[in-house]
Amino acid sequence: MISVIVPTYNRASYLKEALESVLAQNYWADRTRAGIFELLVIDDGSTDRTREVVGQFGERVTYHFQAHVGVSSARNLGLRLAKGDYIGFLDSDDLWKRDKIQVQMSFFKAFPQARVCYTEEIWIRNGVRHNPGKKHRKYSGWIFDKVLPLCLLSLSSALFRREVFEEIGDFDETLPACEDYDFGIRLAHRFPVHLVTKALMIKRGGHPDQLSRRYWGMDRFRVQALEKALSLGLTSEQQRLVKEEILKKSHILVQGFENRNNPEEARKCRELMNKYESQLNQERREER
Question: pTM value?
Answer without folding.
Answer: 0.93
